[in-house]
Fold this sequence. Notes:
The protein is of the alpha+beta class. The protein has one domain. About 35% of the residues lie in helices and about 25% in strands. Strands 1-2 form a two-stranded parallel sheet. Strand 1, helix 2 (about 20-35) and strand 2 (about 35-40) form a beta-alpha-beta unit. The relative contact order is 0.31. The mean pLDDT is about 90.
Amino acid sequence: MDFIFRPNSVAVVGASRTEGKLGYTVLKNIKEGFKGKNISCKS
């Protein structure tokens, strides 16, 4: 179950560079707290 609760990487679909949008906030929080690789995908 470690692969679910302690992943090595995550993908954020709907990431945004526009402050105030949900995708921006999610990606910002992941970058601040997640130590693994993150992949952002704009939709």
